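Handout, section 3.2

Students often ask what a structure token actually looks like in practice. Rather than define it abstractly, here is a full record for Precorrin-6A synthase [deacetylating]. The first block is the sequence as you would receive it.
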Amino acid sequence: MIHLDLIGIGTGNPDHLTRAAERAMRAADLILLPRKRADAADLLDLRRALCAEVLTDTTRVVVFDLPERAADGPYLGPYLGAVRDWHDAIAAAWAGAIATNLPAGGRVALLVWGDPSLYDSSLRIAARLRRGGMALTVTVVPGITSLQALTAAHAIPLNTLAAPVLVTTGRRLRTAGWPADIDTLAVMLDGDCAFTTLDPAGVTIWWGAYLGMPQQALAAGPLADTGAAIVARRAALRAVHGWIMDTYLLRRTAA
């Protein structure tokens, strides 16, 4: 039997780890750390630093190579197909790493950016392991999400009074536009600055990158005045660091 802990670690800041996350890390027999492409080595280093700060000598830490997602087209259908294939490959990588390093069973942990429930597919990948025949139980340890870190950094509420918030993706915002009857959008996974496709009139943006990290970058203001500056700053930051994780909040104000 394998017991899998999916541990939300916030945005990589050690202060974002909850006590529950620290307990789960120390209780694990094995922690698996994914290694992505070379220009994203900082992401592996951040996870290693968290392990060095929290763990005792009883937990083994093993690095495995994370498969890359195939290129996909601009439309949702091809994108979803590429993601499903990618998740199949990740599940196979997890299974191989577990079989090699924990063959008699035990407790394995994965450190998940933000929280495993918000635009993260760790739970879907774990379900593939079960469908593949692995005897598996799963526990989620919640973490601070990028949306919490964003609103805290800007000292703003997520919602307006008695009003809803829609959490969506940059891809969907670009293809479907601003949904009707929603004044506040929280946008995740936007590598192409989909806010540039919107009519900026009456829209305010709050943007943040590397939230909670030493290189944290913030910008806020009317979209018409701030959007182009965010695009330029985002490109510059990505060129310096080789990767970027960012998110933003959009809000329409009544005329």
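Discussion prompt for tutorial groups: The two ends are 59 Å apart (CA to CA). How would you have guessed this from the sequence alone?
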